[in-house]
Amino acid sequence: MSESVLKLKNVTIFQRETAVLSDVSLEILKGDFVYLIGKTGSGKSSFLKTLYGDLALVQGEGEIVNFKLNGLQEKEIPFLRRKLGVVFQDFKLLNDRTVNNNLTFVLKATGWKEKDKIENRIKEVLTKVGMESKGTIYPYQLSGGEQQRVAIARALLNDPELILADEPTGNLDPQTSLEVMALLKEINANGNTILMATHDYALLLKYPSKTLKCENHKIFEVVQRKS
User: Fold this and answer.
1) For 152-168, how does the pLDDT look when each residue is reduced to its tens digit (9 = 90+)?
2) Where are the beta strands (DSSP E) in 96-166?
3) What does the pLDDT look like over 23-59, one tens digit per residue?
């Protein structure tokens, strides 16, 4: 039986005092690739923020990578985030330091201390995303697609149990979007579980997978028609 990496039961997601999603019950299993779709403002980002501890879960029951989301303590959040990889639409790379130093910063912040192990891990993840020759370059010298590859490498650093990707192709042209998507599917095929929020329906058609939809304050699974 597959292991659960995310399980929610009767959850309500709040943005300040406003309930943006209600009565959410779902499960994501180890190795899944799941899309989260819905219009802007439908609650996708609030949902993801709740999963990585940016918004508190105050109603319902939730467990993610063996952390209980209801009652999650402030001091637990850094430990939760070590087991998650988060990829953002706008990359969130530090432009005043090289690619290698961006990744070093994350590893040191999550408890890595030995220089040779840090260097080896950075080399491994950059090779995985096809950016092994770009370590000494600054993010602003890279294209959008290259920056997103570095952001994906950053998400892989601590070998996360679940990768949360929030519109990872949102700032990219269609061809680059397909390249980044192919990379995410390859990472998934190697065993990483991925939950990806997107509004790019072309990607769903090209790479069909389990799909959850945010609509009318609910999340439900979309049954894809066989063509």
Assistant:
1) 999 999 999 999 999 99
2) 162-166
3) 999 999 999 999 999 988 899 999 999 999 999 999 9
Between β-strands 4-15 and 18-29, what pairing exists: parallel, antiparallel or unpaired? antiparallel
Kind and range of the H or E element at 118? helix 115-128
Which residues are registered as beta bridge partners of 213? 37, 220
Task: Answer for the pair 139, 93: CB distance below 8 angstroms, yes or no.
Answer: yes
What is the helix (H) or strand (E) element at residue 87, kind and residue range? strand 84-87
The amino acid sitting at 139 is P
What residues are paired with 215 via a beta bridge? 218
Question: pTM higher than 0.90, yes or no?
Answer: yes
Please, what is the Cα angle at 83 between 81 and 86, to 5 degrees?
Answer: 55
**C-alpha closest to that of 218 among 60, 38, 27, 32:** 38
Nearest CA to 180 out of 196, 160, 162, 157 is that of 196
